[in-house]
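Chapter review: from sequence to fold.
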Amino acid sequence: MTRIEKAVKLVSDLYDFYRRIPKISGKETKPNRAPRQTTRQRTLRPSVPPFADRR
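The token string follows.
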């Protein structure tokens, strides 16, 4: 068996294997919540400009 034939067989076997795995829709697994802000995102967007009181 040549290298190309081996590669084709490997890809074919992988395709068959993954095709048998049941599919899960994204809507059922994710809760309906707004994404949480990380600490870094909160510090990058302050509500008051950082140098406003120094003027």
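Two observations follow directly from the output. The chain has a mean pLDDT of 76. The longest helix spans residues 3-19.
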